[in-house]
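User: structure tokens for DUF4142 domain-containing protein, please.
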Amino acid sequence: MSRNTIGTVFVGGALVLTLSALAYPSMLGIQNASTNASRIIANTQWGPLTEADRDFVVKVRSAGLWEYPLGEMAMQRGTTKEMKEAGEHLIVGHAGLDAMCRKIAPGLNITLPNQATPQQQQFVATVDSKSGQEFDSTAVNIMRVTHGQIFPAIAKIRASTQNTLVRQLADLANDTVLDHITVLEKTGLVNYDQVNFQQTTPPKLPKDQLTPPAPQPGAPVVVLTPRPDLNVNTGSPTPTPSPTVR
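Assistant: Done. Predicted tokens:
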């Protein structure tokens, strides 16, 4: 994975992040991609496929390509039980989403990336450069920002898509991202003021930093290895306990 310094901006010591991935215009034989996300680009047996639907599948795949390895790092280097648990949930959740993306993409004629975006790769490099409690805090807050940004995007796709395969992916993504937000918050390391600001005020970055590289022709599709041995359920998160009212 690339360790080039790309796409992370520091403002007053706080990481300012954004999560976005653009689909390749050539995915479905489109030479000039429209800016109209609701434009139908294919009629399939599962319903019409819009640009927004296609982009969503690519975004889910791209998210797994950086959050899965970050989850492995959290399991190995996290300093608390809660941090290691968050790592386990990241791995299991994204392995499940990845399996669904790989299952539905061929039928929808969507080309999946094999690498995360340069910005997402830098997220991993930033966390990898830390150690101890700073590793935990940096990882948690980066992931909490990115999960908070994608959460409303999932709801929008779920509400608007007419494609049953994309709808199924949105259902799974909704459960998975909510689970990940929950376990990240259980670490007690989320800086909510910082996270809320960064979620709503992302920096403007060049498209090449927000776009996953196109896979090499004929390259096998990268598989995020399932981990049933972790015995983790990411489908029904347990809410963080509320303070006792006295």
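User: Anything notable?

Assistant: The longest strand covers residues 40-44.
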